[in-house]
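User: Hey, quick favor. My workstation is busy. Could you predict this chain's structure for me?
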Amino acid sequence: MKWRFPAALLAAVIAICSGVFGTAAPAIADTLAAPAAPAGSEAGRKIYNFRCYFCHGYSGDAKTVAATFLNPHPVDFTHADPAKFTQDHIVSVLKTGKPGTAMQSFRSVLNDTEMEQLAAFVVDEFVRKKAPNTHYHTPENGWKNHQRYQPAFPFATGEIPVDTPWDKLTEEQARGKRLFLASCVICHDRGHSAGDVATWESTPLSYPRNDYSNAAPVAPLPLKPDAMTSASPYLLHDIPPQVTGMTPLERKGQKLFQGNCAFCHAADGTGKNWIGSFLEPHPRNLRDPAFMDTMTRTRLSATIREGLPGSSMPAWKSVLSDKEIAAIVAYVAKAFHPLPD
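Assistant: No problem, here it is.
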């Protein structure tokens, strides 16, 4: 089974993870000699590690869970043709995007210098050197003592297929598999030996969660964060509010919101979940009186239907019907902030 997000949802995700720069070319026979890193390459590494790894992978090989959901597939830079994937080509795609793919223009996110730096890094690190990693898991990027995840490494690299039966694993390997599924799977290739097999919920969590389920939160949760616990500043915002006295329309809207909109706006409507914190501009906080006092049901319906140019808010008119959009608006008005017509 291969999961696919709706096209509109993918369009929202690209603001933090997009990266279909074109069509990957066949692997070249010989690795080119790698010259010294160009100016701006290390600055480009920081941009890549923040905006591009989610789809293109830490090592530029596009082996991530997000990549399995994208069609066309993100480019594997390590197999890209150096004659085509030049710095100028990548900058051009960053500016204009790639129609028909999840790759949109980065003009509203990166300035010209940052695009040049990012392109220089991709060409030097992946296209030319085919480097094994981007040094992403560093304390500066929030990964203190990354070695604590070591038992999960064989599953992240594919050395041990993640669908290996539990009874075929040693005690240490079983611990590593649990850790991989709890903390690593959302960004790393699932590594199944028998094709794409869904093993995780379509919830945008990227922190250790120890069997945490957005549908059925377990409490109490540990307060001290470590490799296997669920403690995270984002956890609170991935729990839907308890709303009583809803009409059938509002209950329908609740289901649609939590299944579609919560990915970016958070289950509690604040936009302060993990995905929302990375999107720029940030998703609207639907509980913020300063903004919501200016909103009406008619305007919110139009925004959902048509999207917001220059932001990560896509048009949902090809995904949701007018009745479904009306249900979401009714739920937002009930659960997050009252809205006039």
